[in-house]
Inverse folding.
């Protein structure tokens, strides 16, 4: 596929057919994804390929507590898991909330789930002393995750970047024998999409790009 076509037609895929994702195809996806950049080219990414159904279901279960909070906050008109605004609902309400089945279905149904980890011992977190949530370390792992999804699209497969299980990171690390100083950055179910979207809804460039200053004029080439 043309590169721009791949970029414009790679959706978040959460529903998969029963088609397998052969090892040789997955290896090809990983082979191309590995060329993503990372800070200092330190390449601190590690990937665990999970095919076992029991393990995939265990990952789905570990994502449910975060999914409950997400669902409860959305129902309350909040931006879920926002670092600047604590939940406006109590813990009992969150615990009683039943998240939609589709929030855990991808891990249960995809033929392959990739657990993407980042070695914190090799990242350069230049924002570590700022009074906010650190985001810079993600630069050394999320380009790789996006490359995975682009490569999967090119091969006729699809997936979705999920993070619900990260809220239960220690339990996930125990499940998969992940040592310190690795952090879990993403869980990516991959498989053959039930349907392939070709038109994605995204804001036009002038709505989020400005010239010279944040409050400058909208950029339009």
């Amino acid at each position: 596929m043309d590169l721009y076509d791949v970029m414009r037609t790679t959706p978040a895929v959460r529903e998969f057919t029963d088609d397998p994702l052969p090892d040789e195809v997955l290896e090809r996806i990983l082979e191309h994804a590995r060329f993503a950049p990372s800070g200092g080219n330190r390449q601190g990414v590690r990937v665990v390929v999970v095919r076992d159904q029991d393990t995939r279901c265990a990952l789905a279960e570990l994502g449910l507590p975060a999914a409950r909070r997400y669902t409860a906050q959305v129902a309350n008109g909040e931006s879920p898991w926002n670092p600047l605004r604590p939940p406006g609902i109590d813990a009992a309400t969150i615990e009683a909330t039943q998240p939609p089945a589709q929030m855990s279905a991808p891990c249960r149904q995809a033929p392959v789930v990739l657990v993407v980890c980042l070695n914190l011992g090799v990242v350069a977190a230049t924002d570590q002393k700022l009074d906010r949530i650190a985001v810079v370390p993600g630069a050394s792992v999320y380009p790789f995750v996006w490359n995975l999804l682009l490569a999967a699209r090119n091969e006729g497969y699809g997936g979705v970047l999920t993070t619900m299980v990260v809220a239960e990171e220690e339990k996930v690390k125990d499940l998969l024998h992940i040592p310190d100083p690795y952090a879990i950055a993403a869980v990516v179910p991959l498989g053959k999409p039930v349907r392939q979207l070709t038109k994605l809804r995204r804001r036009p460039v002038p709505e989020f790009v400005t010239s010279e200053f944040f409050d400058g004029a909208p950029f339009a080439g």
Summary: The first helix runs from residue 3 to 8.
